[in-house]
Amino acid sequence: VERHELDDGPRVLAYNDAEYAVVAPDGSVDGEGALRGEVEPAVALCSMESYEVEAPPPGAGLPDPSTVNPGSGDLGHRLLLAVAGIQVVAGLVLLVSPLFVSL
Length: 103
Known about the structure:
This protein is α+β, with helices and mostly antiparallel strands and 103 residues long. It has a domain at 2-47. It has two helices and four strands. The protein has a four-stranded antiparallel β-sheet, with helices on one face. The protein is flat, with a radius of gyration of 26 Å.
């Protein structure tokens, strides 16, 4: 993030290797890419004079831990083991490949 002084006033420039966003003093945002989409809501919130947060409806909180059914987690566990096994096999193949392949 950088500040630049141009002929028509100061600007704030936010950029990364592929995208940019330029914010003018009046709150307008110019730019390209997803970075512009990330900057626009922040500028909109900052330019509001006031913002009232609505109270959540009654009973909208998190459930009581005793009412939540315990999950087995077995599918996720097996999937992680499968991915780890594939990575181990791929690593072993890469280690022994110079014995069988010559460039």
